[in-house]
Here is the input.
Amino acid sequence: MLNIIFGDAPNTVYHPPTYFDNTYEDSWLEQPLAKEMVQDIDKSEVVGPHLIESPVLGPVSPKELSGGVKTLLLMAFDDSGKIFNASACGDNCAQWIVNIGKEKNLTINLHHVMDFSHVEDFRAKILNTGKKVGNYQEYLKEIFRIKEN
Here is the structure.
């Protein structure tokens, strides 16, 4: 299930790209999910664990992936129990975040209102209020409840 906490939270990695650069494992980039995310978000092809073929940058290492892809890879493959700041992602990562949350218990941290309006089957638990939301409108309503308190 996808769990979202707004604002500061213990055990949060606030700059996931830096954390990724120092902790990712080669095996992550060999997974079909990783290859799909890199293709979708960065429009690049994972050739191998040390080589990404970017149409803009040419051949690059995984350290040159976008902050959004790095954060998604951490959400999908890092099992340290850390919370990752999803505000490092663009709204184009929203569907992937929801998909990862369907496969595992995922807690993310947000410092902005991520746009989940285009996401199919959006469900999440807002940890600030304890409320489970089943669509984008309920999500917005909970955010406004947080802001009022």
The chain has one domain: 2-148. The longest strand covers residues 2-6. The two ends are 25 Å apart (CA to CA).
